[in-house]
Specification:
256 residues; mainly alpha; 84% helix
Length: 256
Amino acid sequence: MSAPTPATQPRMQAVRDFGRALLFLGKVISRMRFTRLQVAETLRQIYFAGVRSLVIIVTCGFFVGLVLTLQSYDALARFGAADATSTLLALSLFRELGPVLTAILFAGRAGTSITAEIGLMRATEQLDALDLMAIDPLERIIQPRLIAGMITVPALVLIFNATALLGGVVYAVFLMGTDSIVFWGNIQNTVELGRDFGHGMLKAVGFGIVASWLAVYYGWTAKPTGEGVALATTQTVIATAIVVLFLDFVLSALML
């Protein structure tokens, strides 16, 4: 068998990394325990990853709604369909933009913090100390952060969508003079709860699993140096963005 060429080595490394990440996730799931201590730590991590991310989620959601409504209103008004702006806004948010942008923002704000925290625990030998005390670090450190991310992302998607719709209302109703009854009526008449909103929330759950999984994995495998921790946080954002966008395409194709 011929040796791998330099062109194929990056792809083989990516496949190996993906396999290691899957094995890591399987190991974490197999060791999960739901004790009182674990539940308390999970709630603390939900506050850390979710509540402290509200500022960036609300701010970005509001301005995304403003910009999307502005562009949609301008384009649709050329065809005499300005009243359909709210429909385009809601469908874009519920199906695609809400889950995707929230997951990427979560990776940039909370995911990097989780990776850096676990990586610093590795660098300062805190994880080794837990092993010496017969405490499983996967159970005590990784599990609460993984579950917290899985819960937090769908909740943040709901908040992002709500604030984006508020931004749309501000521009369309208060600035452009669109009738508020027409604005909300079009959303109610065209957006399907199961197909549009429900599929978007299914994506949010999947993206939450991916974002939290990659955050804890790169923190766990970070080299115990300052440069290694910095590289791990960068890898978290890049890998999460790529996987989320790829998964978004696959799920959209399957759902349609």
